[in-house]
Amino acid sequence: MDAVVITAATSAHADLIGRAARAGLPVFCEKPIALDLAGTLQAITEVETAGTVLQMGFQRRFDAGYKGAREAVRSGRLGRLHTVRAMSSDAEPPPAGYLAQSGGLYRDSLIHDFDILRWVTGREITEVYAAGSDAGPAVFRELGDVDTGAALLTLDDGTLATLTATRLNGAGYDVRMELAGERDQIVVGLDDRTPIASTEPTGPPAADKPWTGFLERFGPAYEAELNEFVEVVRGERANPCDGREALQALLAAEACELSRRERRPVRPAELMSGATAAYT
């Protein structure tokens, strides 16, 4: 055996990562490492102690549109970035059995937006304020989850970001990011399959074949990230997304969940300090 690819249920990730690390094997694992900070820190420690590789599966980093956005921001094309708007909308909810193990909307769905926000902008999330609604199917209320969520994030350079997600977007699967700067504005995920219709007389028509789900929308990105994992295993490139990167995305998700429940702003750094103290 040369390497391990983990696409099991989230609850199994941390244990499998640890077992592979102790066997000296490089690992590719779908997000997240674990559903809590303690499990995440333990798995990262095992990997770092063993000196092995852990590449996390945040596939949007390998999507052509997000790569173009990162290049535009880093090149200065947009000027000073002041606003980011991102959204992740599923056409329909996943099965109840999956929802029960998912960790909730922020840890399961919006965690992708937290990661790609950091990756595209190169900035850190310093504060979040989140809200959620469980007004849809009863299963969300029964699980203490929400079917729709929103978050206002402040980045370390003052940039403001709004992130929204829903499990109930009947028009189709819709994942987009808009970035606005003092010089220009760009969008990721706007094409002839974006499930949105304009009410303007001269606006574009609705998509004939809207995206149906993440496997279809991000198929090439999933292939690209696994190809890069093979190159990492061969020693041909550096790890493009390690466990520490995944930890930052989970911190933002944890902060949003706490903010939603307590109705207050939360700084991810507070949670990290507490988790580190508890773990050590």
From TrEMBL:
This is Gfo/Idh/MocA family oxidoreductase. The keyword Oxidoreductase applies. One of its GO terms (molecular function) is oxidoreductase activity. Keywords: Oxidoreductase. It holds the Pfam family GFO_IDH_MocA. PANTHER family: BINDING ROSSMANN FOLD OXIDOREDUCTASE, PUTATIVE (AFU_ORTHOLOGUE AFUA_2G10240)-RELATED, NAD(P)-BINDING ROSSMANN-FOLD SUPERFAMILY PROTEIN-RELATED. It comes from the Bacteria. Residues 2-58 form the Gfo/Idh/MocA-like oxidoreductase N-terminal domain. Belongs to the Gfo/Idh/MocA family. InterPro entries: Gfo/Idh/MocA-like_OxRdtase_N, GFO_IDH_MocA-like_dom, NAD(P)-bd_dom_sf. Gene3D superfamilies: Dihydrodipicolinate Reductase, domain 2, NAD(P)-binding Rossmann-like Domain. Residues 67-186 form the GFO/IDH/MocA-like oxidoreductase domain.
